[in-house]
Design goal:
The protein is built from 2 helices and no strands. By secondary structure, it is mostly helical.
Length: about 50
């Protein structure tokens, strides 16, 4: 397999991973962190 093809495949794989992170993973994490019904996070946010 030519070197340029390997580089192209790696670049495409990185691009796909970034798109998946920004479209599914990061919004899911943000939604979980902003959910006030989660007990552990409610303890972290409560003023002392």
């Amino acid at each position: 397999m030519p070197r340029w093809l390997k580089v192209l495949l790696i670049v495409i794989a990185i691009a796909v991973a970034v798109v998946i992170l920004f479209t599914t993973v990061f919004p899911w994490v943000e939604q979980r962190l902003e959910d006030p019904t989660l007990g552990v996070l409610q303890v972290w946010r409560s003023p002392r």
